[in-house]
Design brief:
Helices cover 84% and strands 0% of the residues. By secondary structure, the protein is mainly α. It has one domain. Helix 1 packs antiparallel against helix 2. It is elongated, with a radius of gyration of 23 Å.
Length: 173
């Protein structure tokens, strides 16, 4: 009789422990989802700010300096999101954009004259990236409209974008 009571008590303790673990897991996943979602919002907003800078009438050197500051923010947001997702794609894209704007910084005297073609392409790349982020990193058909997707299965568009920005970058050198 004492053995049966002991087994029942042990079983109940194991059940309580399992339920507690499951609750903690859900809470941690929710926190991670909130953190990723916030950083996705900040990432998209910062890319918007870069597009605004590229559309501005400022001097090329001022644009490049301000863009490089924005890229440092993008580095942090990308790192957080990539850690939450378990891939390094957004950081790779950050490095590619850093290389592109470093190239422009090195030839800043000619950027003003030859600015339009490359900047139009860069603005197009940024717009394409924002669309891909919205399609890939957010839960589709979410009624609230901003829930981060932590379990992404298809990175085809991101992989294709990385390939495209790499080709663009190689074309600059």
């Amino acid at each position: 009789m004492a053995k049966k009571i002991g087994i029942v008590v042990l079983f109940l303790l194991i059940c309580i422990y399992a339920i507690n673990l499951q609750t903690e897991k859900k809470e941690l996943e929710l926190r991670l989802e909130i953190l990723a979602g916030h950083n996705l919002f900040l990432l998209l907003t910062t890319y918007d700010e870069i597009q605004d800078l590229l559309n501005s009438d400022k001097k090329s050197t001022d644009i490049i300096i301000n863009v490089k500051k924005k890229l440092e923010n993008i580095k942090e947001f990308s790192s957080t999101i990539d850690t939450a997702i378990g891939r390094g794609d957004l950081q790779t894209i950050y490095f590619k954009f850093t290389e592109i704007f470093s190239h422009f910084e090195n030839i800043s005297a000619s950027v003003g004259n030859n600015k339009s073609k490359e900047l139009i392409e860069i603005k197009g790349l940024i717009q394409e990236l924002k669309t891909i982020i919205l399609e890939t990193y957010y839960v589709k058909n979410n009624t609230e409209g901003g829930k981060a997707e932590l379990h992404i299965k298809h990175f085809d568009k991101i992989d294709a974008f990385i390939e495209r920005i790499t080709k663009f970058n190689k074309g600059l050198t």
